[in-house]
From TrEMBL:
Protein task: Part of the ABC transporter complex LsrABCD involved in autoinducer 2 (AI-2) import. Probably responsible for the translocation of the substrate across the membrane.
Origin organism lineage: Bacteria, Pseudomonadati, Pseudomonadota, Alphaproteobacteria, Rhodobacterales
Keyword Cell cycle applies: no
Segments crossing the lipid bilayer: 24-43, 69-91, 97-116, 128-155, 161-181, 219-237, 264-282, 294-311, 318-336, 342-359
One Gene Ontology cellular component: plasma membrane
Species in which this protein is naturally found: Paragemmobacter kunshanensis
Membrane topology note: Multi-pass membrane protein
Descriptive protein name: Autoinducer 2 import system permease protein LsrD
Subunit structure: The complex is composed of two ATP-binding proteins (LsrA), two transmembrane proteins (LsrC and LsrD) and a solute-binding protein (LsrB).
Record-linked InterPro entries: ABC_transp_permease
Predominant localisation class: membrane
One Pfam family this sequence matches: BPD_transp_2
Length: 370
């Protein structure tokens, strides 16, 4: 008996109490949803995932898969930043508006001087801001996102106002900047180099043409960033401190972590990721509008929560958020495939988000009792 409990304070290891990683539960939900939509489509004489056309030599419905990946990639990048904010016990309601403001500013520095042989009719600045190297609008966009995230972090960390209020103020202000920038008018006609940021073939270039995937750059960037931040959150001090602050901020302070500085860093990172999303979004659409990014912040939060990130802080993972993003994309595409009206889709999406939060609260109570 002494050997069985040595080093465990008298406690014995019970294999029956082992718990699997919560990401497996999210993955199981993803598979279940895929099966449900496949069955519903089969009942209507089609298929959700598979190719049903005899004149196309492919197993999967490639067009649908492409759309599913693209529609989730932009918001998924925002969700990577939002996940980190929620893990430290915060919230970010401003990311969608930051996308809108950044989009307008970025496109202003990405414009080409001539359109079909005529001066650019949507020009914001003079000739000095036309046909600039692509690095200039990218730098301007990243600076915009960094500034917004920095302001959020400083307000949360040093004024001690609730993150909800701080980021709500940024949400309203950034949306106002987006509308003010060009008096509400779209900003269009970027240079060819800027348009290729999202519409090029980054994957093919990385694999020397073996995996040519034209126009899927946002998805490639999303995957690369997800891998990067998974490693950062799992293996670096940045990630360990984030989880420590979200689990118990007072204990984190007592252990020597500069909590305020780390909060600023996390919110700044979220702002930068929102800027990356804005750059890819405007490059993909070849235009910027003041209304870009509306509701993106709520969709990003929903992806994180569906993926198992706890709104109480201290729990969750980048992998879970990626799976949550996949579930979100499957649900949207699945509703479209069975021709469910858009307003019903919004109702069901809302119910799913509430259900995910209820499940998270249940998990917390169960963990507390256990």
């Amino acid at each position: 008996m002494a050997e069985a409990t040595h080093g465990l304070g008298g406690l014995k290891y019970d294999p029956a109490k082992r718990t699997r990683a919560p990401e497996w539960n999210v993955f199981g939900a993803l598979v279940l949803i895929l099966v449900i939509f496949e069955v519903l489509n089969r009942m209507q004489g089609g298929s959700f995932l598979f190719n049903m056309r005899d004149n196309v030599d492919a197993i999967f419905n490639q067009q649908r898969l492409d759309i599913m990946i693209l529609q989730v990639a932009i918001i998924g990048i925002i969700a990577l930043g939002v996940t980190q904010v929620i893990i430290i016990g915060g919230i970010d309601l401003s990311s969608g508006s930051v996308v809108g403001a950044t989009a307008m500013i970025v496109m202003s520095f990405a414009q080409t001087a001539m359109v079909n042989g005529n001066p650019n009719p949507k020009a914001i600045f003079g000739d000095w801001a036309m046909d600039l190297p692509v690095i200039v609008p990218i730098a301007a966009g990243l600076a915009c996102g960094l500034l917004a995230g920095l302001v959020n972090g400083l307000l949360v960390a040093y004024t001690k106002i609730p993150p909800f209020i701080a980021t709500l103020g940024m949400m309203v202000s950034a949306r106002g900047v987006a509308r003010w920038w060009s008096n509400g008018q779209p900003v269009s006609f970027p240079t060819e180099g800027y348009g290729s940021l999202a519409n090029g073939d980054l994957l093919g270039g990385m694999t020397f043409g073996l995996l040519s995937w034209q126009g899927q750059n946002p998805a490639v960037v999303f995957v690369l960033l997800a891998v990067l931040f998974h490693l950062v959150m799992k293996y670096t001090l940045y990630g360990k401190r984030s989880y420590a602050i979200g689990s118990n901020e007072a204990a984190a302070r007592m252990s020597g972590i500069n909590v305020d500085r780390h909060k600023v860093l996390v919110y700044t990172m979220a702002g930068l990721l929102a800027a990356v999303a804005a750059i890819l979004l405007t490059s993909k659409n070849l235009t910027a509008q003041a209304g870009m990014g509306v509701m993106y912040e709520l969709d990003a939060i929903a992806m994180a929560v569906i993926g198992g990130v706890s709104l109480a802080g201290g729990r969750g993972s980048i992998i879970g958020t990626v799976l949550g993003a996949a579930i979100f994309s499957v649900i949207i595409s699945g509703f479209t495939s069975i021709r469910l009206d858009a307003y019903y889709q919004e109702m069901v999406k809302g119910a799913i988000i509430v259900g995910a939060v209820v499940l998270d609260q249940w998990r917390q109570r169960t963990r507390t009792r256990g």
